[in-house]
Amino acid sequence: MSQILSPSQLLELKTKELELLRRKKQLEAKLPHLYFPMYAWQREVLESDNRVNLLTAANQIGKSSALIRRQIANATDPARWKKIFGLKNRAPTQFWYFYPDSLTLEKEIDTKWVPEWLPRKEMESDPQYGWRLKKKQGTYFSCEFLAGPIVYFQMYTKSLASVQAGSVYEITADEELPMDFYSELMFRLTATGGIFTSGFTPTLNQLFWKQCMEGNKILPSAKKMTISMYDCLTYEDGTPSTHITIDKIRLAEERCKNDTERQRRIYGKFVTEEGRTYYAFEFEKNVVVPYDISGWNIYAAVDYGSGDDPSMQKKKKNSKNHPAAITFVAVRPDFKKGAVFKSWRGDHVKTTAGDVYNKYEELASQLMVTQKCYDPGAVDFGTIAERNSNSFNKADKSRDKGEDLLNTLFKYKMLDIFDDDPESLKLAGELMSLMVSNQTSENKSGDDLSDSLRYNVMQIPWDLSAVNEKIKNANSEEPKVARPMTEAEFQAEQIRLRRGDYDDRDRKDQPEGWHELEEEFDYWN
């Protein structure tokens, strides 16, 4: 039976509770990175000692704050130096913290690091928690902690050459890391056995990160977390969030322009963007383990490009040059099935027409090529091939027809891409991320291998009778629609149905308070 407390005992208990609360508030005010309430997923981010931590999350839920809090804790807590980095009686020397550009860096330091999370009041000069921000040429350059570690601020807009020195204990990437940086940054962690931590809302549609988050083939041992706004309704102690409520989430959902954006910005999902040029291509379905293609016809296509000179890296931003690309497709004798089994893209290599022709000869040396074509705009390539008694046809560059044909081949699984060739996986990356809007841009890029493949499939006499039969049967059984659902629309629809949500996007009585909601999100995040 529970003991009944006397009035004096109740008063004493309440006094102790108030004192604990007062001390907690004092600690929150001085060391907010440790004592301000956390969501359960933020605690996981803070405490992880995994060598690779990947977090995709909805917009404005504290993703960046979780990374900043982890960084400050790692720079100020000797117990973490041993637990997370394996260091005994010494501090890690340096960390790198990446932002997309200088404007984002300045904003994050001024609105999050300093006012929200760095130690405050007398703790700013404390031997353990103290810190000093430094600038170079007017931009934040580093945060030096009195305990020893230094956090150097980096940007994706820097050249790769600027991040090719130094041994780092942890690299933190706020927002989606461009793949050009990934391999180089991993080498910076080799000597220290350091940690890579990244948190982002998926917007660049990069195949590598999609594969990382959705499967176990790439970075299988990484800690992978996908966080939605619904994971932020309560803090880790069960108390309601002061920032996010069900009503605010509903309003935020209604503000999304389409289901794809809703899945990405509300649920933190890595979904396919609407407007993909090759919308029928699915990595899981169209990229396969190699199978026997002996006896199949082989077709090749060359998309000439002069490439980039690595020594002119600073001028690369304004360059319109693109790399050359070559694809090889094996086609079954009945012309109802094909496979991309070999590819090449001349990344970061300056090439002449002669260089590209020599590369083709190298790749095709052991192959019996049935037919081959090249971009007729590359006159020099055609001349060189002719002088070497090598007959190339001029490619059919009809963009609309080529894109439609490729989408048909991928949709009905008539064309596969073998997963044993790294260059062919670059092709898969292009097919996943190439947007319709990019094709109308004066500076279009990222379509080199896909253009070569488009030329290639246009020269092959495919037997589409099976496809025509499927379309005929479908039309006789189902009512016609304007167009089929894209992958993103299908996935979003399934998630909405599972959640029991009804479709109210066409509602006329939109709730008031949009501006107030936006201002509140900006304030808290």
Q: What descriptive keywords fit this protein?
A:
single chain, 525 residues, alpha/beta, seven-stranded mixed β-sheet, 19 helices
What is the global morphology? Answer: elongated
Distance from first to last alpha carbon: 48 Å
Helical proportion? Answer: 25-40%
**Overall SS class:** alpha/beta
Number of strands: 15
Unreliable runs: 310-319, 478-483, 494-521
Q: Quick one: biggest sheet?
A: 8 strands, mixed
Radius of gyration: 28 Å
Distinct helical segment count: 19
> What is the strand arrangement across the widest sheet?
3-4-5-2-6-7-1-8
Residues in β-strands, percent: 15-25%
pLDDT averaged residue by residue: 83
Explain this structure.
This protein is α/β, with parallel strands linked by helices and 525 residues long. Helix content is 39%, strand content 16%. It contains 19 helices and 15 strands. An eight-stranded mixed beta sheet has the order 3-4-5-2-6-7-1-8. A seven-stranded mixed beta sheet has the order 9-15-12-11-10-13-14. Helix 7 links the parallel strand 6 and strand 7. Helix 3 (40-47) runs parallel beside helix 4. The two termini are 48 Å apart. Residues 310-319, 478-483 and 494-521 have low confidence and may be disordered.
